[in-house]
Description:
The chain has helices at residues 3-11, 19-25, 50-64, 86-96, 124-136, 151-161, 178-186, 235-245, 261-271, 308-312, 317-328, 331-338, 363-375, 379-393, 395-403, 405-413, 432-435, 437-440, 453-465, 473-486, 500-503, 508-519, 527-534, 536-543; strands at 37-40, 69-72, 104-105, 111-112, 140-143, 192-195, 204-209, 213-218, 225-227, 250-254, 277-281, 285-287, 294-296. Helix 14 packs antiparallel against helix 15 (395-403) and helix 14 packs across helix 16 (405-413). The chain is elongated, with a radius of gyration of 33 Å. The chain has 547 residues and is mainly alpha-helical.
Amino acid sequence: MTDYQKIxxxxxxxxxTSVEEIFARYPKRNLKEGQVVTRFxxxxxxxxxxxxxxxxxxxxxxxxNTDGIIFxxxxxxxxxxxxxxxxxxxxxxxNRFGIxxxxxxxxxGKDVGLYGPYVQSQxxxxxxxxxxxxxxxxxxxxxxxxxxxxxxxxxKLRETKFNEDDEKEYDPCxxxxxxxxxxxIDNGESFAIRLKTQNTGKERIKFYxxxxxxxxxxxxxxxxxxxxxxxxxxxxFAHAIDDTLMGTTIAVRGxxxxxxxxxxxxxxxxxxxxxxxxxxxxxxxxxxxxxGNRRKISKRHDPEANxxxxxxxxxxxxxxxxxxxxxxxxxxxxxxxxxxDLPWQDFRFDINDIxxxxxxxxxxxxxxxxxxxxxKMSGEQLYKNWLDYAKEYDAxxxxxxxxxxxxxxxxxxxxxxxxxxxxKDIYNYxxxxxxxxxxxxxxxxxxxEEKDIPLANEFLNEYLKNFKMPGSNEEWFSEVKLLAxxxxxxxxxxxxxxxxxxYKGNTAKVxxxxxVALTGRKNSPTLYTIMTILGEEETKKRLSHIF
Length: 547
């Protein structure tokens, strides 16, 4: 038995399972040609960031577009940052957006799939088995250095711990003898496991990224940690083992990991694994309002960075997903224009179609896309979605919508069902209460110019003298037009002497007077429909209002 093997036994005397036995538990996946296996591997450390969801969305589509497999792995090894109930929130968000996984662990701890456990904190023995193997081969070693407490400690340690005459970072414990290791163990000292890098700091490597192509970088020359002193693996070691055992063919992750890739590739080599194919997706950015510069979208500064924001504001699920596709692949916008009625799921793309440039989150463009999504809904569907939103975020409104269903269904149907060009004024359900506020209460503010007030009052007085609820939109418009002509609004302009050219030959202005009296606004859906929803008594009250 070599000294390396003796050290490995000293460190892990209870670990008897071999690496070969572990691989036997995780047989190679039987994939058809072209099928990919992707994963989404979030940490339950808070609410979901749009950047994390972007990765899930890319992974989901890459798998589904090849009839492949996507699994969910919870990377909960950072116990200090773990937040209670974060996993349940994560599952809820993914489920609402329709991201369905082929393999995962349920919230009650049941594994769905053959490659679990799908929660890293339940895989610690596996990591120790591979750590023991690396130590036994002299590729890793125990480190007994005390944990640093802060920045000053780190700087002081670096003065003595790492060589200053080159670019490598060798740990002082890397060459401890068996006797020295045994002494530390006998003293009850805890230890971390570090990779014994084979590089000197002068080497450079090339690796291939599925989005960005070939990348050249400095090779890893640091004895980085594989297992912390508490036995928990950092991301590098855990993902290398898990992605290999679980048969991941493409790992989608943020481009901030590009700088760590040389270290990960050295680790794969030390473990004897085939390197995984990485897809480093670009980070979603925004233009900073203060500096005008591009920056990463942030939950601290940007509410839309938090995926819960879209539920709270009542954005349709498809609006969010279609906008993500726009940012993901510029070809989607053209496809949507050519296929306005097809579901976004019919859009197919492969990894070569993913943009390599960091996309900008443009709120106006996002809202425009959402307007189009909502415009395609029937009145019944819009009402249902509005009600579902209100039940979750505005209980008093939900009660009103339920108790007045017919009224609000008709409201949602205005300029929508059967319309050649449906209105595109609404982009989320949160705005609908204010958008239709005139239905709830008589308006108290009116969008009417000062010079038009005498004319509006005169017309409304005449209009009310013989007012009755019209039987159709055509009948209503015909009556308004006849009255306008009788008063000279569209004939000799006698009531528009101050600016006759702006009102000549049409009834638009008198319709505006009626619209403002009923809704307080110059723009609204069909006036006839608004009258029928308000009812004759309420319509008369509002028309009798003197501006």
